[in-house]
Amino acid sequence: MATANQFIKPLTTKINENGNLEIGGCDLVNLADKYATPLYVIDEFTLRSICKDYKSAFAKYPKSQMMYASKALCSLATTAIIAQEGFGFDVVSGGEIYTVHKAGADMSKVLFNGHNKSYDELCMALDVNVGRISVDNFFELSLLDEIAKSKNKNVNILLRITPGIECHTHEYIQTGHLDCKFGFDLTQIDEVIDLLLTEYTNLHLVGLHAHVGSQIFESSIYADEIEILIKEISRVDEKFGLKLSEINIGGGLGVKYVDTDCPPSVVEIAEVIIQKLYETTEKYGVELPTLILEPGRSIISTSGVTLYTIGSSKQVPRATKYVSVDGGMADNLRPAMYQAEYCAQIANKPEIDDTLQKVTIAGKFCESGDILIKNIELPNPEEGDILCVYNTGAYNYSMASNYNKAPRPAMVLVNNSQSDIIVNRETYEDLISHETIPNGLKEQ
Ligand code: LLP
């Protein structure tokens, strides 16, 4: 069974009776008209559908908890939807803790990750009773124990470890290789346990955590990771008599941005993961652990598209034709940062005809590198057309900036022909709302 991460477009995408693109029953040209552009659009059906696929694919395994990686897109409404689907949340900052808490997430199903959590963030995590903290390093162990003691609390922790696995993804989004800033080396685990048993007595180690990278297409990576984690659990049991009951294998499942991307389905990775868990627990003689997964991109990416209005076009003599849109690297940093590729269609003329031209979609920001899509074929792109870029749900809004003093776009949720604003467009007033001119300057 194919799952949403294997499609470029949201599952409800179609061409309607006006000849326009439609998602969630909403005509994209009407959305652009009503809410202006650039506009992030999230299709609720696609989002719920992949959450359900994750749940049902892992339902065969007796104990599992899905925790959506909020960093992919963290907003009140999307958090509320994902929480309704029974997910917990992986959070990595005070801001994400605050947002998921405000959205009504069950905090016992929240895991706080990160390699440099601050004193204030750790206090906040304990105050709102997050279920788990994944501890990354020796400094954090001591800091967290000190805070836990001062608040008279016991804290369930996982240890973030570096499994030494390299995956074939962009080097900036690999996280499991040995010389990396995340987690403990396997050789440091015994020292950590000694400290936990003697000094850090308010911290209770319940399991191990690893994450090898993002935009992964090989299911076997998860099997390799499980082999390492279960072997370690068995070794810790033998040496310390300590039974670790949870493994968190991170996120990372890839999505299909362009035709050449072939990510496995959620069902396929679930089969590999579950089979490997049974095999290794038997091989190493340990109890089946609770399985935690932290998918981010594969949950939210396909449900999102971004709408832009086309402005100027420029044919460089004997070279590229640039078609510029009213957004770019401030709302989607991924092409500039990771050479990420995207697909797009013109929402008001999605059908391919004999006016097809090969063009490059340029963002409006003052950087030569602000190119959204190179060499895409579109039917006669003209000023005023609405361009729909697919698969922008993950790491677009969450990495957006105000570069060139651009207000961040609005976001709408679409479903059953209804659209609702879930993030308001920033205004110029918002842009300066945190700024002040010191009195001394005013007098000059
Ligand atoms: N868990 C941990 C510990 C992580 O570091 C990440 C992502 C995830 C889960 C979720 O991974 P996902 O399922 O989304 O692949 N900005 C980059 C991606 C950075 C991912 C960082 N960590 C991009 O736009 O491609």
Determine the N-to-C terminus distance.
69 Å
- Percent of residues in helices comes to 25-40%
* Structural Rg: 23 Å
Helix-and-strand structural type: alpha/beta
User: Which of globular, elongated, flat, extended, rod-shaped describes the shape?
Assistant: globular
**Ligand species:** ligand LLP
Mean pLDDT over the full residue set: 96
Largest sheet: 9 strands, mixed
Report the β-strand fraction as a percent range.
Answer: 15-25%
List the uncertain runs: none
Multimerization state: single chain
Count of helical segments?
A: 13
> What is the number of beta strands?
21
Structure write-up:
The radius of gyration is 23 Å and the shape is globular. Strand 6, helix 4 (94-102) and strand 7 (110-112) form a beta-alpha-beta unit. Helix content is 30%, strand content 24%. Helix 2 (44-58) packs parallel to helix 9 and helix 5 crosses helix 6. The strands form three sheets. Strands 4, 14, 15, 16, 17, 18, 19, 20 and 21 form a nine-stranded mixed β-sheet that branches. The protein has an eight-stranded parallel barrel with strand order 5-6-7-8-9-11-12-13, surrounded by six helices. It has a three-stranded antiparallel β-sheet with strand order 1-2-3. The protein is α/β, with parallel strands linked by helices. It binds ligand LLP. The site of ligand LLP has 22 residues, from helix 10 and helix 11.
Name some characteristics of this structure:
single chain; 444 residues; alpha/beta; 9-stranded mixed sheet; 8-stranded parallel beta barrel; 21 strands; globular; binds ligand LLP
